[in-house]
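anyone seen this seq b4? input:
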Amino acid sequence: MERRWKIGTPYLNDSTRIIVMGITGREASQVVAESEALYPGFVVAGVTPGKGGSEVAGVPVYNTVREAQERHPEINTGIVYVPPASVKDAVIELIDAGIGVIFIITEHVPIRDTVYFYHYAKERGTIIVGPTSLGCIIPKIPARIGAIGGKDPSVAYADGGLVILSKSGGLTTTTAEMFKRRGWGVYMALALGGDVISCTTFADAIENLADDPNVKGVIIQGEVGGSYEEQAAETILRLWKEGRWNKPVAAFVAGRFQESLEGVSFGHAGAIVERGKGKATDKIRAFNEVGKITGLVKVAEFYHDLVHCIEELGVPRNFEDSTPEGKVKPLYSTINEENCQFKA
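predicted toks r here
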């Protein structure tokens, strides 16, 4: 994607101007109202067929994307909030209108629809994040797409050098808050979504961030199912060999315990282990191998260990650690590692 911004990334930047598909729906209208109060000017139009001429939180509503573009030629990003069965048509309408970045917030999008518009977008150079993405935030601008961070993102998000990449929207913000307490701010947090097919993967994001000097460290939050974490490890190694990657990476892969529960699935739609593929231990092994070669990757044994990994990798704090000494010892310290049972 041709760079036309001063601050930010291909996913969100100071030139981002947003059109919201399904803007008059309950969730979309609430998010638009909150986002406009926090970061005014980024959402410039919305589309709901049959409701053109109305407004949501001061944002004009149109019947089609083309109609909105006639009044707002600066539109370059779309957010999709329409029902699952309508997502495919909404995404195709945005792509055909030349919109370069699309976030799909909707859950339960049919897999075959995702497959179709994934390839349709690739052929036309369009970036799609999702489905089931919570959005993206860059405190430095400041701006956000979607509902990431909730009603008061400042509780969790402060400007810094970390990038958080996660399949979970809620965990993205939880992680940002944890690092903020310990002294690190966030350059960008991107919730990729947890569907079986992720239109933007960890590897895609890493590729797009490789040459960004604002990125001082990357947090990858993976889980069982699929092979996106292995792809991320392979991409880091390839970019490192090409001389394009020198950024510390801390990774956490959830779901190791699932390997003792054969046939049981849990979590996101993408958290499915099939025929021995997609195991957490395989993903952890892939990251560890890249870490041994490059010295840039550390895997957190437990979620809270991500902080220690970033510290050990030498990523400088942006401000003082605000957590009192002795108050950060995690509850998992009571676990007996031999049998994973709590001690008496």
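The first helix runs from residue 26 to 38. Residues 330-337, 339-344 have pLDDT under 50 and may be disordered. kinda curious what u guys think
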